[in-house]
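Progress note, sequence design subtask.
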């Protein structure tokens, strides 16, 4: 995205609004007060001193300065437009700051007309306040979209009207924005990725690949020439050593050779598809999504970043539900990651924040009532030996263990609870990581490791399974003098259910990202829970 300056075709350095005497400044102040009453329809005296809502903060801002103009210094106007430029680079739209109206007022103010100068000043303040709000909180309120959202908003410690005035009168507007900028490597990489994909859009995006034939390695098909163009447009570069020119009279761009297979597998991996080099329905669908779709996914991730990345601790665990990966970030910046299995579209993993308090080795699994009704009951009816073979015990409503043959399994509600005993066949595997919550969701091992080989891993009933849970356990206990891998193995070998408290609770963030950057490359996912469209509509409103 080019500079806002070029978008509005204005040279900011040409602005020279001068207030030659106190009477002119007083006239502008009167105009500002009158325009605020007419435009906003609110009293200049408002009680909320911590709000960043523009309709509340703009009048309070001018009240703090006796309605004197705020943007009369050329450098402040320059900084405002520069910061609006940077905001657009972070996924906002010009309309989010009424840029067209601001541009028109900016040009008109150069005439020296008092009313025009007053209007520009108000619109500049309005844009500045919206920018600060959107950077601090995000433009979209996640609480309005998700009743279970429990991530806290940043707490405003000082009166924003006073702070904005202090910066405009002192260090300048850019210094204020620098103070509130998100200092997070992932956020920065997403901004860079957005710039890349917007540049692709300016070049016309990419061509669709004909999808009437499944394309497999070693095939010869004219569609492969379009595939090469499509991948090159996104930055997938073939290595040297492609098929010889004109071999057997065949156009080499039509040949599905080894170099192209590598590119396709890379594309599939980065889009959560089976990386087999075979281009079928799902790969075609992903290839033929327009660049605007990728741009919007990056914009959504930046907005989600503004909700989450400001208040994160130095050390934390992050689960990307859509991407089915879990990350552990340590205070020294080290990043550990593992493949995960997260909730299916029908049994979603919730988005929330909590703290891992303890680990439980050789855990039992109390089957949730919903899984008992939907899964287990029909299996027991078909196979009476299912419970014994899978190491379940049956408990009545008083928690007492009873014989399975004492239960009327044909009843709609047998009134019992199943508890799977510890062991290698336990659905939770050999360890679970507990952060007690109302959703009964936690991280755990699994007795079925084969599912991690799938690229699409939204498969669980809501909990999060980890591919390498014992590495994770060791990292959570790192530096604890009484802990070692040998001690962990001893606990596992005992077969006894054992609770181990963490030295300190570890923040865990269960989040939802359909675009992110990892190992220097951008990854995209489809939207398994169909959340993106609603947020994008609010972001574009």
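Output:
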């Amino acid at each position: 995205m080019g500079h806002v300056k070029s978008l509005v075709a204005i040279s900011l350095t040409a602005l020279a609004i001068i207030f030659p005497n106190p009477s002119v400044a007083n006239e502008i102040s009167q105009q500002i007060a009158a325009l605020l009453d007419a435009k906003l329809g609110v009293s200049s005296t408002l009680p909320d001193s911590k709000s960043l809502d523009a309709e509340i903060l703009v009048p309070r801002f001018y009240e703090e300065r006796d309605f004197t103009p705020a943007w009369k210094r050329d450098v402040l106007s320059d900084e405002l437009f520069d910061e609006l430029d940077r905001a657009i680079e972070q996924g906002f739209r010009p309309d989010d700051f009424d840029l067209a109206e601001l541009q028109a007022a900016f040009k008109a103010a150069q005439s020296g007309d008092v009313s025009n100068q007053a209007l520009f000043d108000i619109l500049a303040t309005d844009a500045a306040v919206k920018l600060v709000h959107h950077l601090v909180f995000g433009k979209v309120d996640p609480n309005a979209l998700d009743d279970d959202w429990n991530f806290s908003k940043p707490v405003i410690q000082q009166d924003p009207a006073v702070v904005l005035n202090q910066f405009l009168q002192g260090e300048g507007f850019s210094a204020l924005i620098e103070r509130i900028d998100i200092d997070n490597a992932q956020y920065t990489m997403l901004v860079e990725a957005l710039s890349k994909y917007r540049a692709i859009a300016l070049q016309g995006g990419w061509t669709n690949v004909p999808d009437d034939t499944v394309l497999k390695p070693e095939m010869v098909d004219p569609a492969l020439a379009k595939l090469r163009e499509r991948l090159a447009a996104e930055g997938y570069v073939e290595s040297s050593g492609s098929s010889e020119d004109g071999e057997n009279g065949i156009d080499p761009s039509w040949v599905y050779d080894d170099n192209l297979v590598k590119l396709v597998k890379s594309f599939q991996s980065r889009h959560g598809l089976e990386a087999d080099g075979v281009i079928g329905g799902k790969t075609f669908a992903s290839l033929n999504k327009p660049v605007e779709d990728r741009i919007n996914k990056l914009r959504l991730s930046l907005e989600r970043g503004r909700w989450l990345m400001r208040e994160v601790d130095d050390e934390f665990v992050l689960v990307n539900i859509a991407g089915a990966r879990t990350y552990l970030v340590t205070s020294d910046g080290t990043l550990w990651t593992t493949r995960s299995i997260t909730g299916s579209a029908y049994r979603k993993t919730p988005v929330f924040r909590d703290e891992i308090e303890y680990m439980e080795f050789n855990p039992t699994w109390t089957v949730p009532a919903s899984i008992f009704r939907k899964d287990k009951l029909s299996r027991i009816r078909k196979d009476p030996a299912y419970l014994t073979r899978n190491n379940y015990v049956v408990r009545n409503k008083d928690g007492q263990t009873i014989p399975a043959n004492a239960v009327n399994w044909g009843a709609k509600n047998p009134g019992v609870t199943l508890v799977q005993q510890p062991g290698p066949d336990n659905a939770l595997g050999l360890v679970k990581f507990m952060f007690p919550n109302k959703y009964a969701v936690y991280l755990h091992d699994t007795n079925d490791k084969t599912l991690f080989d799938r690229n699409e891993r939204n498969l669980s009933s809501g909990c999060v399974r980890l591919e390498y849970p014992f590495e994770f356990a060791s990292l959570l206990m790192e530096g604890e003098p009484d802990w070692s891998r040998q001690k962990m193995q001893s606990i596992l070998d005992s077969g006894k259910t054992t609770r181990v408290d963490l030295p300190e609770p570890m923040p865990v963030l269960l989040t939802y990202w359909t675009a992110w950057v990892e190992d220097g490359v951008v990854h995209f996912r489809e939207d398994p829970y169909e959340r993106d469209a609603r947020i994008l509509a609010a972001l574009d409103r």
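The longest strand covers residues 498-511. Work on this subtask will continue into the next period as scheduled.
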